Amino acid sequence: MVVNIQNILFLTIVMLCFVILSAVFISKLAVDPLQEHIHNLQNLSKETLHELNLPISTIKTNTQMMKKKLDDEKTLKRINRIESACEMLQQRYNELDYMIKTQTKQDIKEDINLLKLVQERVEFLSSVYPNIKFNLELQTTSIHSDKIGLSKIIDNIIDNGVKYSPDSNSIDIKLENHTLIIQDFGRGMDEVELLVIFDNYYQSNKNMQGFGIGLGMVKRFCDTNNIQLSFKSKPNFGTTVILKFKES
Hints:
The chain is an alpha+beta fold. The protein folds into two domains: 2-103; 109-244, Histidine kinase-like ATPase, C-terminal domain (Heat Shock Protein 90), CATH 3.30.565. The chain is 59% helix and 17% strand. The protein is built from six helices and seven strands. It has helices at 2-68, 73-103, 114-128, 147-163, 191-196, 214-224; strands spanning 109-113, 133-138, 142-146, 170-176, 179-184, 228-234, 238-244. The strands form two sheets. The chain has a five-stranded mixed beta sheet with strand order 2-4-5-7-6, with helices on one face. Strands 1-3 form a two-stranded antiparallel sheet. Helix 1 runs antiparallel to helix 2 (73-103) and helix 4 packs antiparallel against helix 6. The chain is globular and about 55 Å long.
């Protein structure tokens, strides 16, 4: 009787091992083509991105050369519109490059002149919101971080400040002591709203365009990159967003 039980246990263990090995083998057969497909897609994305760089650079170079030889106002306006469109393509190129690098786990951090970066983002957003006055008070600050990701974060915060300030045309931006402070003078938020602003798909104004994922993305980026993020807000007095960077 004992021998039979031992035989049954042995056979059971053998069958279990066979089932497990079969499952592993089948899984490998299914996963290997998928991994190869993903690898091929990544290579295609890199190659396509590389191919896009040449026409963008060509358009930018030639429009700059053309502007030097033109004095007709209408033609210059057309050239300026081409340059603006090309700049938008360059932004999308940078974002695609950024996404590929993050997906392939490449090191994307670099030394950044934060003052210069803020000025670049404000210059870009000034063309998007020409009616907004950006009041800058910036100190020279160097950090080591993800430049493209941080650019998107700054854009997102300022964009929110403008959208939620329909009765104000002013945004204050201050950079001091490794701290970036972005203040709007819009509708503001109460304590209840401040508790849920990082929830995905939350929007304090349902009529606003977008999907309500902006501040959640901002928080995830700050948590990942060791940036202290805080908000100060009061209804009808606006919102202040504070980014505290680690000193290098």
